[in-house]
Amino acid sequence: MTSAQSLSGTVADAIEEQIRTQHLEPGDRIGTKTELIERLDVAPATLNEGLRILREKSILVLKPGPKGGIFVADQPPLSRLAVEIADLKAARLINVNDAIEVLDGLDTQVMHDAVRCRTKRDVADLEELRELLIAQWHTARSEEINWRLHRQLAGITPNLMLRSFYQNLVDYIMAEGSDPTLGVKGFDPHSDKRLDIHLALIDLVIERDDSRVDEVLTAHRMVKA
């Protein structure tokens, strides 16, 4: 990435931040190019590149004429979802535990798909993760490997929306570096029972045992993620 690209990306981020912090709605005016050049203290070419980035993301539109300027676009629903989640996180209204609850609701479809669609390569990857889980369960690496397992299971589903949503939530949880106890008094993230449940998830997929998915997932929810 060149310095010009980095600077234009910073401009795009600054305009997105303005939209979020000022709670601008579709159709709201952000300003003119001249106003933004002065406000952000950048060259016209840098601003134009930043605006191009945001136009490609359907975040803003440019309107010509005396009453024209740069306006917030009427974003597609999925784009609005991403912005709203970012706003909630910035306002500290959501946290890792909320993400884990959402994953709990998605686990059933993820597991049924994994049992139905797994390949020989998936089996090999899961067997490797099984060995890592057992070897590292009582170490500081256990949570990282545990979330890698969840990400791997979601990677098997042919439902690309489910896969993307699930894996991005896992990435968010891992990036936050959350307290492994999830703030739950008495919860032991390194318990043998919790390990056994995650090994059972692996076994269900390898053995294509769809009949016990709901039973194991119920136990999984009882000991958190």
From TrEMBL:
The HTH gntR-type domain, residue ranges: 5-75
PROSITE patterns referenced in this protein's UniProt entry, alphabetically: HTH_GNTR
InterPro entries (UniProt xref): GntR_C (IPR011711), TF_FadR/GntR_C (IPR008920), Tscrpt_reg_HTH_GntR (IPR000524), WH-like_DNA-bd_sf (IPR036388), WH_DNA-bd_sf (IPR036390)
Gene Ontology MF term list: DNA binding; DNA-binding transcription factor activity
Domain of life: Bacteria
Pfam families: FCD, GntR
UniProt keyword Transcription regulation present: yes
Alphabetic keyword roster: DNA-binding, Transcription, Transcription regulation
SMART domains: HTH_GNTR (SM00345)
Name of the protein described by the UniProt record: FadR family transcriptional regulator
Organism: Bifidobacterium jacchi
